[in-house]
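Need a sequence for this fold. Nothing fancy.
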């Protein structure tokens, strides 16, 4: 099976990437060590297992904590074009490493309407999660994490030219928004101004 895989959203510290198929539950990569620049311009693979409907794109370099995107393959005659528009709803997304201000992930929600649940965890190093839909900020968690790091957060935000914000504990939580239009994607912005951060989130599909 031939697929043209295009990565449209990637952080500067991501890559190289390994590519996996849902045929073997993402067990063994069918391609490894693919650079971000190649994926951004389009990577054609003849090694995609027949019957694949979802490809996982997993960063294996500096950003090693399961930063990836699941993508739906779109059949076009004998060649398949895969455009990575972000993470498929219901898929966990994680990041661990240095300052990321912000990390931006596009979540594929599909056209269905309904309640969209957003689970997040900033652990202890404070991070802030925002969800944008149809150009409107529908979720803002504020900074979540250990309140013992308030002084460090204040200094980091001041250095970035932003106002200080209060940390709320604990770092994890669940919030939601009502998806009222057929727009198929939402955007998650995670603000992590401190180094050695780790965060994760899962945006569920609308129900």
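Here you go.
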């Amino acid at each position: 099976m031939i697929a043209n895989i295009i990565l449209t959203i990637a952080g500067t510290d991501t890559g190289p990437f390994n590519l996996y198929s849902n045929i073997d539950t993402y067990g063994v990569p069918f391609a490894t060590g693919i650079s971000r620049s190649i994926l951004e311009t389009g990577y054609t693979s003849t090694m995609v297992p027949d019957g694949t409907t979802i490809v996982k794109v997993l960063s294996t370099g500096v950003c090693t904590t399961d930063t990836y995107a699941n993508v739906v393959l779109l059949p076009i005659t004998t060649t398949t074009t895969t455009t990575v528009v972000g993470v498929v709803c219901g898929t966990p997304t994680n990041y661990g490493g240095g300052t990321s201000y912000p990390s931006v992930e596009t979540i594929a929600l599909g056209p269905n309407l309904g309640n969209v649940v957003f689970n997040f965890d900033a652990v202890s190093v404070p991070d802030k999660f925002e969800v944008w839909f149809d150009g409107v900020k529908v979720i803002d968690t504020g900074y979540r994490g250990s309140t013992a790091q308030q002084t460090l957060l204040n200094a980091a935000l001041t250095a970035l030219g932003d106002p200080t914000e209060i940390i709320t504990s604990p770092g994890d939580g669940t919030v939601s928004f009502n998806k009222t239009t057929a727009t198929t994607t939402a955007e998650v912005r995670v603000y992590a101004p401190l180094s050695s951060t780790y965060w994760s989130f899962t945006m569920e599909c609308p129900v």
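For context: Residues 65-84 have pLDDT under 50 and may be disordered.
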